Recover the amino acids of this structure.
């Protein structure tokens, strides 16, 4: 199957009124899912590429949904408590669908591989979170670790990829995971519920003065103060520069592969990020 329809198929599991009303499903791992479908389509597993892309995306969404569960103590309003509970339940539900899909198709070995990858991701997250709690993380380390966490599930398929394709698979997975991460961070810095411990947070903490670092260390910021920091340190421009560099590296990778199969698919995955960094598009984003 050559057409890419994984996000549409996933809506069967994510579009529930209860979930939409009380919580928000994280961004779909679109670039990684499409990239996985392309490379698995070159293997002996052709015919299962869509299944693997869908199942892996559901696991990723499950973990990302669980990541939205805060650990802040104290009293909560009814709506906040309901949203927190729905994050737990939604994450568990999406995870169960992944098992069901692969078990129904008889892909028991892949269930084991993805489950092992989930454990690796959780262990790596705990190490990162411990450093974050101690305010010991640099902006670049945060970005690098976040990209690695985004890659881990999809790396479960590397042994399945033809040997001649593995270098390109790993390189493109790294770069597209970076693009996805940067695009997500550009949203996070404007989200009051997610701006803490975002890339913007660590960039300001790393480069800010004592007063600004003090504000950040309190883990609760007034919107006005935070907005002034984001503007002062040109966070949007910093992230856009990183996105430009990443898209350029992808273009170079594709140019180096003469007669590359599925070039139109790779260009389709790249196109949203290229449009993102065009000056006219960036100006709209800044507004």
């Amino acid at each position: 199957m050559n057409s890419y329809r994984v996000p549409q198929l996933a809506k069967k599991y994510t579009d529930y009124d209860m979930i939409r009303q009380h919580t928000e499903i994280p961004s779909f791992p679109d670039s990684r899912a499409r990239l996985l479908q392309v490379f698995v389509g070159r293997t002996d597993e052709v015919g299962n590429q869509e299944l693997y892309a869908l199942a892996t995306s559901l696991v990723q969404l499950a973990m990302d949904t669980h990541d939205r569960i805060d650990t802040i103590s104290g009293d909560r309003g009814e709506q906040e408590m309901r949203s927190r509970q729905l994050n737990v339940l939604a994450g568990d539900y999406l995870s169960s669908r992944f098992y069901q899909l692969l078990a129904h198709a008889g892909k028991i070995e892949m269930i084991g591989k993805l489950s092992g990858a989930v454990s690796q991701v959780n262990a790596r997250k705990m190490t990162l979170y411990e450093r974050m709690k101690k305010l010991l993380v640099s902006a670049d380390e945060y970005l690098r670790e976040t990209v690695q966490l985004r890659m881990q599930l999809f790396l479960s398929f590397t042994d399945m990829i033809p040997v001649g394709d593995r270098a390109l698979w790993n390189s493109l997975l790294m770069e597209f995971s970076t693009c996805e991460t940067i695009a997500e961070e550009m949203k996070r810095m404007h989200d009051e519920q997610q701006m803490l411990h975002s890339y913007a947070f660590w960039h300001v903490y790393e480069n800010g003065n004592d007063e600004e670092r003090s504000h950040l260390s309190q883990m609760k910021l007034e919107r006005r103060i935070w907005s002034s920091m984001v503007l002062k340190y040109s966070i949007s421009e910093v992230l856009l520069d990183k996105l430009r560099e990443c898209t350029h590296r992808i273009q170079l990778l594709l140019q180096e592969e003469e007669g590359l199969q599925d070039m139109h698919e790779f260009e389709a995955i790249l196109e949203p990020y290229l449009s993102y960094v065009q000056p006219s598009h960036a100006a709209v984003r800044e507004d």
Remarks:
- Residues 78-104 form the longest helix (27 residues).
- Confidence is low (pLDDT under 50) at residues 71-76, 281-287.
- DSSP finds 14 helices and no strands in the chain.
- Residues 172 and 269 are 10 Å apart (CA to CA).
